[in-house]
Amino acid sequence: MCNKEDIQDLLGALINEALKDLGLDALAPEDLTPDYPTSAGFGDLSSNAALRLGSLKKEPARDIAFRITEQIKKRLETNKLKACIKDVKAQGPGFINFYLSDDYFYGQLSRIISEGEDFAKVDIGKGKRVLIEFVSANPTGSLSVAHARQAVVGDVLGNVLSFLGFKVEREYYLNDEGNQINILGKSVELRQKELKGEKTEFPENYYQGDYIYDIAKILEKEKKRPVETGDYAAQYILDIIKKELDDFSIKFDTWYSQKALRVSGKIDKVFNSLKEKGLLYEQEGALWFKSTAFGDDKDRVVIKSDGSHTYLAPDIAYHEDKYKRGFQWLINLWGPDHHGYIGRLKAAVQALGKDADSLSVIIVQLASIFREGKPVEMSTRRGQYITLREVLDEVGPDAARFFFVMRRTSSHLNFDLETAKKQTPENPVYYVQYAHARISGILRQSSPDLKGAEFSLLKEKEELDLIKKLWQFYPTLYICYKTVDPYMLTVYLQQVAEGFHRFYDRHRVLGQDDKLTQARLSLIEATKIILSCGLKLLGVSAPEKM
Asked: At 379, is the pLDDT very low, low, confident or very high (cuts 50, 70, 90)?
């Protein structure tokens, strides 16, 4: 019986053979592998080989698709895939769509029962080292909901890639020096003066949150006189950030200091290397990086005329250091205000002698907090932006993690706090967790022996639909990997939960014929396995009782 990971390759080979029979073998074998269609109406797997050939041969793709389909059907008469394929159709503008047999899906159900979560583990990564850098908020204030969304996206993406065989590490780039740290220190010093009764004028660009008062009060109470108030305040805030992330189940392997990078001399070293390549030049008293040589729209300053570095200078050295540490794929999660920065960093990566595709920059759009359908503009407790801590305190980590990854990273996210707290199907995370708990309760009642279950007894539409949805777990993870975006996992888990609830509401599991009961118990056990694994990848609990 075909496995999930080889069915595509076997069908690709079958298409290749059919093309040779027809004298149409103009495509590379890797271009023939069918993919997972976006709609169930287009089969279980779909190939666009005819569309590609139509462009090459200047013939109607639909005609080519019909010819290929007929040839595939002839070959299936003597091919080992015959038992796995129910039908092959030429559809739409020229797609070749494969409809897999019930026996194939029964085989996949059996594999889920026997292999557990390993059913969906396909070693795509083969140990390739990946570094995901995310959050990286300046240590000048509490984490906002925008940072919180980045945190979940980065963490879940890391979980998915690790599951698929990549060797993943997570890194927080700490911007712990520069003007913002100086302003942070001055903000605390001004509040200290206020605490002493001195009259002060507080500039608008200074940090004004209550936490600045908290730091000032500590310094006054303990009579501390740090050498650098900004450094002390930054460390105080960083400790808060680490605690917030820890409570959110976000763990970083490395906290990388920009200050340490500068002191190490790595910036000067990378500049010397770029100079030797002729990629740096002086103009108008500044040092410029010739980024237009790598597709950027203009060259970029790396050292200003006053001798100070631009943001790009340490970033070039930082990314070179990532490669030198052995990482082969770099993933950066940034906020939308950094979109214009992608081109110059991609140019820098190529200047370092690396492929531009070895760096993936994912823009994570902002999140808005709603309460009862109305946007919450300000925090009621602090008079500032809504913080991660406030969301955690109000809805808990499970709902927060699920909700923050419920939309594409490229889409703005609306997070309704009231919905996230409801214990009703209207709350997506509750809906999925309840399915898991409901199955657990049924299995506790029955203590089933699932060995030797006759899956062919599962003939109802709701049963077959649920089996097919379980089979789509790996394809879903594959999409998350290819798009570098884990949001499809939340969509998929809601679909699995919906499929289970629909099946269970329409068909009895217990009290049927013994063999049918055993088959249906096997189906819900497989559903529980997939739900549990998916929730674990999201970092969300899978309760046994609710």
From this structure: very low
Beta strands in 40-190 (DSSP E): 45-47, 85-91, 95-100, 129-133, 167-174
| Residue indicated by tokens 């190490």 | 264
Average pLDDT of the chain to the nearest whole number? 92
3-state secondary structure of 445: helix
> 312-324 and 342-351 are packed helices; what angle lies between their axes, rounded to 10 degrees?
50
CA proximity to 318, closest of 352, 281, 295, 292: 352
What architecture does CATH give domain 129-175+251-363? Answer: 3-Layer(aba) Sandwich (3.40)
pLDDT tens-place string over residues 54-83: 888 888 999 999 999 999 999 998 888 888
Distance, CA of 338 to CA of 526 (rounded, Å): 43
Q: Are 435 and 497 in contact (CB under 8 A)?
A: yes
Res. 3 pLDDT band, cuts 50 70 90: low
Enumerate the domain spans of the chain. Answer: 4-100, 107-123+425-538, 129-175+251-363, 179-247
Q: 463 pLDDT exceeds 50?
A: yes
How far is 213 from 188, CA to CA, in rounded Å? 7
pLDDT band at 127 (very low <50, low <70, confident <90, very high): very high
What is the SS3 assignment for 234-269? Answer: HHHHHHHHHHHHHHCCCCCCEEEEHHHHHHHCHHHH
Yes or no: is domain 4-100 CATH 3.40.1010.20? no
Measured distance CA(533)–CA(512) in Å, rounded: 29
What's the CA gap between 100 and 84, in Å, rounded? 6
SS3 per-residue string spanning 165-190: CCEEEEEEEECCCCHHHHHHHHHHHH
- Position 380 scores a pLDDT of 37
Contact 90, 109 (CB under 8 A): no
The number of beta carbons lying within 10 Å of the beta carbon of residue 448 is 18
**What pLDDT was estimated at residue 40?**
67
Q: What angle do CA 245, 247, 249 make, to 5 degrees?
A: 70
3-state DSSP assignment of residue 421: helix
The Cα 80–Cα 103 span in angstroms is 13
Flag whether pLDDT at 224 surpasses 90.
Answer: no
Q: Which of 169, 138, 175 is nearest to 314 (CA)?
A: 175
Are 233 and 189 within 8 A, CB to CB? Answer: no
CATH superfamily of 107-123+425-538: Isoleucyl-tRNA Synthetase; Domain 1 (1.10.730.10)
Whole-model pTM over 0.90: yes
Please say if the pLDDT value at position 402 is more than 80: yes
Rounded distance between C-alpha atoms, residue 227 and residue 220, angstroms: 15
Q: Look at residue 311 in the predicted model and tell me its pLDDT.
A: 92
End-to-end CA distance of the chain: 38
